[in-house]
C-alpha cells in the first residue's frame, strides 16, 4: 500500500496563559464570536511566514505544526476555498486572508492535532 504524501503546516500562536481574555460584554457581539471561531485554525506552509507572525504579533509566542496529507491540505488552502461575501459572513476565511496561496484554514479537528515545533 502506497503511503500518502504529507505536508507540514505551521502557525504562530500565543503560549497558553499569555493572552488577554476579552471582557464579557465584547464576547456577546457576533463579530467577536465569528473571529473567535477562527482562532487556532490559520496555518501556512511557509515556516518563514509563521516566524514573521511569531516575531511581529506575539510578545510570548511559539510555533506549532500539524502534519496532514497533501490532498487534505489542498482542500483547505484558502485560495482553493469558495470565495463569497465579506467579513460579516461566518466561515469566510478568504475575506480575511492576506496570502491565500500559502494560507490554510483548517477544521478544528485537524488544527487541534498541532504539536510544538522543534527545529
TrEMBL record:
Region Disordered, annotated ranges: 1-24
Biased composition, class Basic and acidic residues, residue ranges: 1-16
Full protein name: Uncharacterized protein
Source organism of the structure: marine sediment metagenome
